[in-house]
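Section 5.1 Outputs to date
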Amino acid sequence: MLSERRLEVLRAIVQDYVGTEEPVGSKALTERHRLGVSPATVRNDMAVLEDEGFIAQPHTSAGRIPTDKGYRLFVDKLAGVKPLSSPERRAIHHFLDGAVDLDDVVGRTVRLLAQLTRQVAIVQYPSLTRSTVRHVELLSLASARLMLVLITDTGRVEQRMIDCPAPFGETALADLRARLNSRVVGRRFADVPQLVQDLPESFESEDRGTVSTVLSTLLETLVEETEERLMIGGTSNLTRFGHDFPVMIRPVLEALEEQVVLLKLLGEAKDSGMTVRIGHENAHEGLNSTSVVTVGYGSGDEAVAKLGVVGPTRMDYPGTMGAVRAVARYVGQILAES
């Protein structure tokens, strides 16, 4: 275990390197921070930190910079989540307030996160598998053609066209709409199949085919892998950090273009807590020079999706973690109130 003083030296190195983008020397540390010891003692502490793999010397006769291991210790032991300032909180409220639908919420959230953190922002759409039904609407488009509209508690709206096996009158349509909603509104998607399985039997024989077709379409909508939708923004922010990537920025950009990679970065939505993966903790080789900060968001206690940012390992972790958490909480409030 490192002593408290050496932990403070590591904290100072991380803070200075993130702020100045320059390797940090012992003289600079003693001038900028109240460490209470001489430069010689700081040099000794830095030597121990280097031997333990927490800092490294990028060039001969240069100062030291944090390693992935050093950033990990900083995040786990030394970095609190920086609360947002009042202007930042007002900016979040102003930017997200007034969103007209879920697509608008997600789009605004991506732009806001990218602006607040100056990193690449990723927002996953709420998963249908963790949602409940708010309303099912059935609209007649022709005598044998319907539109099914599924509205979730998270604001998602899914529309499907249905070709009926026979004409279906307005009276029967209104009856089906009422019976369907009485059974499924407020229920989890996983419960819906069992709740509606006997519904066709309660209709006249000539209408059962259409009722079964409507239910099949509804159930297909519920099980589709629509949670794999996400939005990304702020990729151009990476160009400001070109010198932070050891070879070139292209592998990072290529990784961010792959949907599967992004979904793995976000992880399981049910894991709602804050996650910070640093450097080589990211499985994808193209992202070994980046850090990823993610958190779940939702309309209640359970997360329905994830959002987060990707940036260089030389990241303002307390500020980034604070921004990601604050935005997630506000998006959750919007979904709860929508």
